[in-house]
Design brief:
With 424 residues, the protein is α+β, with helices and mostly antiparallel strands. It has 14 helices and twelve strands. It folds into three domains: 153 residues, 2-Layer Sandwich (BirA Bifunctional Protein, domain 2), CATH 3.30.930; 88 residues, no CATH class; 69 residues, no CATH class. Helices cover 34% and strands 17% of the residues. The strands form three sheets. A six-stranded antiparallel beta sheet has the order 2-4-5-3-1-12, sandwiched between helices. Strands 6-7-8 form a three-stranded antiparallel beta sheet. Strand 7 and strand 8 form a beta hairpin. The longest helix is centred in the N-terminal third of the chain and has 16 residues. The chain is elongated, with a radius of gyration of 26 Å. The N and C termini lie far apart (74 Å). InterPro entries: Endonuclease_MobA/VirD2. It comes from Dyadobacter arcticus.
């Protein structure tokens, strides 16, 4: 199991992200923890109002919304009941067992996963610290859950799905015979990855220090539909003698690649593969206004998606390609939709990057934390109940201005000094 935590101050946007998936038929709300009603009996406003009422108890804390995704191995077939129980155990492990939380099962990716929406504001108005939440709480909890529920351990799949690093074959000029090194990379990429254009193919090949060169506009290579395969150094510069496509026994020629492009375009899994990339981008950017392009690239890389960007001489972004090493699929940004194109991503990201300590997005997996506070108004599963139906309904009603703020959170009033003031 792998856990990813995002924190923000945009509860409505986070909730809307999951509700949109629900409306599209790609998700289901399978559990409402510490809610007075079952998940299937709650409207959108009731889901929102329950957590908003808790947020209203502490208006000083700006980062008050926690959005967690729990990701499981593709081989695991988990029921809704199991996913709900795992989610509840995870929240308890990180100290959120008394917090109101909504659990959504998402079904739009190639692996089972759930999203949890909750808050770090407790029922007494105090807050649960989010500092190093992943490092100090989640990893230990994750490991315990893997044992308790018999899940595939993330560490056992480290080289595959969970660390999401590409295969460690790289053509390095001067270290191996050029043609053999390029052939090793080409055979691996052509057989394993799904690409539909020369640009998408190069996005993968460049990752392994290889480039497919079709020549400039008026070059003899371009006119003859030829391809030269070259080795790149660590800075992306071409080095060594290029090898013609026809020199390889498996003939990675322009003509044969066109056939492969068409075959990959018609792959029935391509739509599903594109959903995983879109979801990863949306999960990172949805409802946030503080994510820079470098930060987005870093987060996607941790999820197994390399982002290849192209800029002009003025430094303006004009192209973007995503290479998903988990599904072995490659997509130009515009193929995923306008908001995932170079222009769309530039509009959704901030221009200047924030420093790491300012980022409100964490990747995790991590330690059983301390219990998260006491005095919650309602706690599912322990026999607690509210005094009457009226108080139950109040949890799901909108927050009104001027409602109760805990005494310890109120700012002390300034005392007026007695005496006379003389003016001249």
């Amino acid at each position: 199991m792998v856990a990813v935590i995002h924190t923000s101050n945009r509860l409505r946007a986070v909730l809307q992200y999951n509700e949109n998936k629900l409306e599209q038929g790609h998700a289901e709300c399978i559990s409402a923890i510490n809610y007075p009603k079952d998940a299937d009996a709650l409207s959108f406003d009731q889901k929102l109002n329950r957590i908003q009422r808790q947020l209203a108890l502490n208006k000083r804390t700006k980062v008050n919304t926690v959005h967690v995704s729990l990701n499981f191995d593709p081989s695991e077939k988990l029921s809704k009941e199991q996913l709900a129980e795992i989610s509840k155990s995870y929240l308890k492990g990180i100290g959120f067992e008394k917090q109101p939380a909504l659990v959504y099962e998402h079904r739009d990716a190639g692996h089972p996963h759930v999203h949890i929406v909750t808050t770090n504001i407790k029922a007494d108005g105090s807050r649960i610290s989010l500092h190093n939440l992943g490092k100090n709480q989640s990893e230990k909890t994750r490991k315990e859950i893997e044992v308790d529920f018999g899940l595939v351990k993330a560490q056992d799949r480290k080289a595959q799905e969970f660390t999401l690093k590409p295969v460690s074959i790289k053509a390095e000029y001067g270290r191996s015979e050029t043609k053999k090194a390029i052939a090793n990379v080409l055979e691996k990429v052509l057989n394993d990855y799904k690409f539909t254009t020369m640009g998408e193919l190069n996005a993968v090949l460049n990752h392994y220090n290889v480039a497919a060169d079709i020549g400039s506009e008026d070059s003899r290579i371009r006119k003859n539909n030829g391809i030269l395969y070259r080795v790149l150094d660590k800075d992306g510069n071409r080095v060594g003698v290029p090898i013609k496509a026809s020199d390889f026994h498996f003939k990675p020629t322009h003509r044969n690649l066109k056939v492969r492009f068409l075959f990959n375009e018609m792959n029935p899994n391509r739509t599903k593969d594109s959903l995983r990339i879109r979801n990863s981008i949306d999960f990172t950017l949805y409802g946030k206004q503080n994510v820079s392009l470098p930060r987005l690239i870093d987060i996607l890389q941790k999820d197994g998606i390399d982002t290849v960007i192209r800029k002009n001489e003025e430094g303006l972004l004009y192209g973007i390609t995503y290479c998903d090493h988990r599904t072995r699929s490659v997509f130009n940004g515009s193929a995923l939709g306008k908001q995932y194109s170079a222009k769309g991503i530039a509009e959704r990201c901030i221009e200047d990057p924030f420093s790491l300590h300012q980022q409100k997005s964490q990747r995790i997996g991590l330690d059983v934390g301390q219990s998260a506070g006491a005095g919650n108004v309602y706690h599912a599963g322990n026999g607690s109940s509210l005094e009457n139906d009226k108080s139950l309904d109040s949890l799901l009603s909108p927050v009104k201005d001027g409602e109760y703020t805990p005494h310890q959170l109120k700012k002390p009033k300034r005392k007026k000094q007695k005496g006379f003031s003389m003016g001249f």
